[in-house]
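Deliverable D2.4 — example input (structure tokens):
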């Protein structure tokens, strides 16, 4: 090759080196892939080596350039293995790099001082770079990435290694050696191009991952928005239901109270007693309706006890069989000897009945199967995210009650609306239905998972935490009735004049004196003035200016141990929790009749006697 041809070829190769060098540096700044940084440094070392070797070829008197080129070639090998390690997510082989560097230095010093066999020292000098590049090839072929650029880079590096090992043996043939060296330089340029291709692949994969994450985020955000909307709707409806139930219970208290008071005043043979009984029966049905409203609102009164979920199914079996048509096959897979849960057995039975009734409706008078299953399972975060009312639930062990039907199933939109009290697939809502069980489940600290597909039926699974609530043990009193003509003075605070009038009639008929007021602040003034003179305080929990619970705290803050009875229409658990450590504090739920009120008063006074 003439000097002109050599200069022309060198110029083209160095120009290509410069293009790849700039490209690697540019894309590293844009993409921040570490393998591009070390690839850029490797190309810079290769360019130095090429300049040194081509300069020596043009002027062989400049022998130190051979050492410069050899060091630059070795630096290229080190930088390439570091680049490939970052590219494949592998550890950088520092021990191998150190060993190869020491071997290279020893060989370089020995060859410069002794120099008896140039070909042998040349081959030994290539041992380190070849070992490093072969390690990089191993990283590539052992990776899980099966993209085309990875395969091409492995092949080009292998060809580059072959040429490095062959060159010492073809150095005597100047023409063949020159062509091989130029081809090796071009392979290095191709290695740089392939690194750019791989960075492009990784960028696309990264974008796809980010797009997937963004899609998942949007889906999760949509789910949270729906959950938040549902929570707002439930809270709004709960507040309204609670307010309505409170006012309604006040009215029912006066109806039931005065009716039962009238019953006591009538002789046993009076025909009016039958009419009053019908009035009280209708009022009791209204009480059941308000209870259902409060259950949905999540404020219903629950008598917590230790409940065996299998016995809940057993106890409801006869009722379930009565609502399931004969053409529908009922299958029960009830697991025995499960841990117990704390809850209200009656309301848990209501949950089961509503789910079975819903399954019967789903079959729409057609033959099919309804399966009831109980068990114990571990719930993970994925199940919680896919469930209703699970925003405050935690992963762990849960008892479950499942009702599965072989009906027509539902689509995703239908599933999202099934707990809306104003939604019905049949066009006309028949009541609170599934929405009412949501309140029961929430009060028990549970959640509901619904699995349904069109044409494949539906499965409703209710999860309850075992032993999540401390058992509420009702206080036991002697329930005696004193024969004293004057039993003492009672302070009553209630904002409803009908309730005050009713309680006054009941207590005065039982030989108590009664002082009443319509708000908590006025009651506190009376307590401050004449607190020790009262034998009992009757306080409504919901009053203007100061609630009954706040008045109760102020009474105890003054050091009075006088019995207190708190009255409420809907927040029983909260009240019981506030007074659970006070043996002289009691609770009665609206609506109540004459005997219920007098029994609670007698119980409070008898316990005061027992604890004084």
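Example output (designed residues):
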């Amino acid at each position: 090759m003439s000097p002109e041809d050599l200069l022309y070829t060198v110029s083209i190769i160095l120009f290509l080196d410069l293009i790849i060098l700039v490209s690697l540096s540019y894309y590293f700044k844009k993409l921040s892939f570490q393998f591009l940084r070390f690839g850029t440094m490797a190309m810079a070392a290769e360019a130095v080596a090429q300049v040194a070797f081509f300069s020596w070829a043009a002027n062989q008197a400049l022998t130190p350039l051979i050492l410069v080129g050899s060091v630059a070639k070795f630096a290229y090998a080190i930088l390439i293995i570091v680049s490939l390690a970052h590219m494949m997510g592998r550890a950088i082989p520092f021990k191998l790099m150190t060993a190869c560097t020491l071997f290279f230095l020893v060989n370089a010093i020995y060859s410069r001082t002794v120099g008896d066999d140039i070909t042998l020292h040349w081959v030994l000098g290539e041992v380190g770079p070849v070992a490093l590049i072969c390690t990089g090839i191993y990283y590539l072929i052992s990776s899980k990435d099966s993209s085309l650029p990875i395969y091409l880079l492995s092949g080009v590096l292998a060809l580059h290694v072959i040429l490095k090992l062959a060159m010492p043996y073809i150095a005597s043939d100047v023409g063949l050696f020159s062509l091989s060296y130029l081809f090796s330089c071009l392979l290095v340029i191709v290695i740089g191009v392939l690194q750019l291709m791989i960075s492009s692949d990784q960028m696309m994969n990264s974008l796809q991952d980010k797009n997937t994450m963004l899609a998942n985020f949007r889906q999760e955000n949509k789910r949270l928005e729906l959950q938040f909307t549902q929570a707002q709707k439930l809270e709004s409806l709960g507040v309204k239901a609670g307010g309505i139930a409170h006012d309604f219970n006040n009215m029912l208290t006066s109806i039931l109270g005065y009716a039962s008071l009238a019953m006591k005043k009538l002789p046993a043979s009076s025909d009016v007693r039958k009419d009053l009984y019908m009035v009280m029966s209708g009022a009791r049905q209204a009480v059941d309706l308000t209870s259902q409203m409060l259950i949905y609102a999540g404020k219903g009164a629950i008598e917590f006890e230790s409940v065996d979920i299998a016995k809940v199914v057993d106890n409801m079996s006869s009722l379930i069989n009565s609502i399931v048509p004969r053409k529908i096959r009922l299958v029960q897979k009830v697991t025995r000897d499960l841990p117990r849960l704390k809850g209200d057995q009656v309301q848990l039975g209501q949950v089961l009945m509503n789910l079975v009734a819903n399954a019967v409706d789903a079959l729409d008078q057609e033959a099919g199967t309804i399966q009831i299953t109980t068990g114990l399972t571990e719930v993970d975060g994925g199940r919680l995210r896919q469930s209703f009312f699970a925003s405050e639930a935690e992963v762990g062990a849960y008892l479950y009650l499942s009702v599965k039907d072989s009906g027509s199933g539902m689509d995703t939109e239908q599933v999202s609306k099934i707990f809306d009290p104003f939604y019905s697939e049949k066009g006309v809502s028949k009541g609170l239905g599934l929405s009412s069980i949501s309140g029961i489940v929430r009060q028990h600290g549970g959640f509901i998972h619904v699995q349904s597909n069109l044409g494949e039926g539906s499965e409703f699974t209710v999860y309850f935490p075992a032993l999540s609530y401390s058992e509420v043990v009702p206080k036991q009193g002697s329930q005696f009735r004193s024969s004293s003509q004057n039993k003492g003075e009672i302070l009553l605070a209630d904002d409803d004049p009908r309730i005050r009038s009713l309680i006054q009639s009941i207590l005065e008929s039982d030989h108590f004196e009664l002082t009443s007021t319509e708000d908590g602040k006025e009651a506190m003034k009376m307590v401050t003035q004449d607190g020790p003179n009262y034998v009992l305080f009757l306080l409504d929990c919901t009053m203007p200016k100061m609630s009954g619970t706040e008045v109760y705290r102020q009474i105890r803050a003054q050091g009075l141990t006088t019995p207190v009875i708190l009255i409420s229409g809907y927040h029983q658990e909260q009240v019981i929790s506030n007074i659970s450590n006070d043996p002289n504090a009691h609770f009665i739920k609206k609506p109540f009749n004459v005997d219920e009120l007098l029994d609670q008063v007698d119980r409070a006074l008898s316990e005061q006697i027992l604890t004084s």
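The two ends are 120 Å apart (CA to CA).
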